[in-house]
Amino acid sequence: MAMGFGRKKRLGDLLVDAGVITQDQLAEALRIQKTEKTGDRLGEVLIDLNFTNEKQIMKALREQLKIESIDLSTIRIPEDVTKLLEESVLRKYSLVPFAFNEKNPNLLKVAMSDPLDIRAMDDISIITGLQIDRYVATPSDIAATIDRYYGNAEALRVAEQYTREREEQEKAKAAEAAEESNVQDAPIVKLLGQIIDQAVHKRASDIHIEPMENQVRIRFRVDGVLHEAMRHDISLHPALIARIKIVSGLDISEKRRPQDGRATSIVDRQEYDIRVSILPTVYGEKVVMRLAQKKALTMDKRDLGFPDEALAKFDHILSHPNGLILVTGPTGSGKSTTLYTALSELNVEGVNIITVEDPVEANLNGINQVQVNEKAGLTFSSALRSILRQDPDIIMIGEIRDQETAEIAVKASITGHLVVSTLHTNSSANTITRLADMGVENYLIADSVVGVIAQRLVRRVCPACSIVKEADEEERKTLGISDAGKRVLVRHPGHKECVRCGGTGYFGRIGIYEIMPINAELRQAINRGENADVLEQIALKYGMKTLRMNAIEYALQGITTVEEVRRVAYEEDG
After folding, report:
1. Confidence of residue 247 (pLDDT cuts 50, 70, 90)
2. Fewer CB atoms near the end CB (10 Å): N or C, the chain?
């Protein structure tokens, strides 16, 4: 908000300097603008108060800034210019691009009612990828031009959307009819239902259905580890795959290409979202079904496993009005859950949140979610450019995969948006150097990143069957305890017959976090291009706890085992 106020103040000062209004009139207009919170621009408030008029403001801007004015009613705007920006952005900033510069095609001529609006120029520049050549025009001239060029386009878009929806409804009816005729294969329908039910009851996150030479092997991933659940004769495989394809909307006849789809299933009156991935293998198609409870991805922050101290840091990072927040870790480390939890907390009425994901993992009410579709040309970077035209406050990018996405994310965060995203790196400090490796300038990284959260999931030791033992020499070494006289007790997984954990020795998982808020000293180090070790040392000096430290704490508290500490903090084991 401060940025907007500063900009309006500058326009006021310019009008005072030009003798259009007095200092007292400016103070009165600013007071009204602040107390009545109508969202009107300062120029509009001054005109409403009869202190000045559009023409006088335009003349003052033209003379003081030494830029040309333009009468839009006499100009025909080419189609390739009108396509560059959405109507909503033009209305928000009260501006219209009207031509490319004759000598430099990378320069876009833009008529603005407030040429001092830096944020408007930055946003237009990011969206179009062009530099801005400012001209001044009156607000009413700009509004009339927007109506003239974009009014019909809006109506056409609505009509096209209606036609598209009708076609999709027809397709859906045909698919439903095909499904009805397949339900006669009742045993297979029941088998698939049982597999899903059993997976849910065993707390599985994924179901793997794998064809082998003579059998179909079905495995469940529970707490991050695969366990075999059942085997069936290979003769069942084709019908089971066909059933899965029907419920997830895939092509039954296509057996040679990978396919991805979605389905939903209700188990114990809870709705589960199922992501289906099919891959052709030597013995037939292998299916992986990822189960997600609709409400499970948005937990309370306390359930994520943040200790109080980490929770305070997390809240502090989330409270930034703009900047880049990165959550990092390998696949399956709970990054999406952390992001969704953060978003649902930021999801209040006055905020426009848009996400770009590949794929959308859970549907959140009141948040606009976009699914990447490479085939249709909707990549992370192209979706991001479109999103910036949607006047967002908060943008969530499923993953930063390339330089182009990284640069747009960084620039969007610098121009007043809060951007949250994920990266696959091992630690918080490595995340910064990874952005630099991707080709993002150090000064941009330093300016944009407000915090990095690296995370892993450790398995909780089963409370019903775990055994407490004294730590041996090897375990003490892993836990970093050098004091030979100190007695250390640790928990171990228990017996194989435990019903609670199904004999695995573990029940559920908890997050461990390495939270690195970016302070002034870190900013300077990033600017200098220091390596990850130096950045980590600075962060540790300011109280950061590494993943390994947090995992060790949980092992000493008896929440997890030493074996899990080794598993998740392996890269620091030397």
Report:
1. very high
2. C
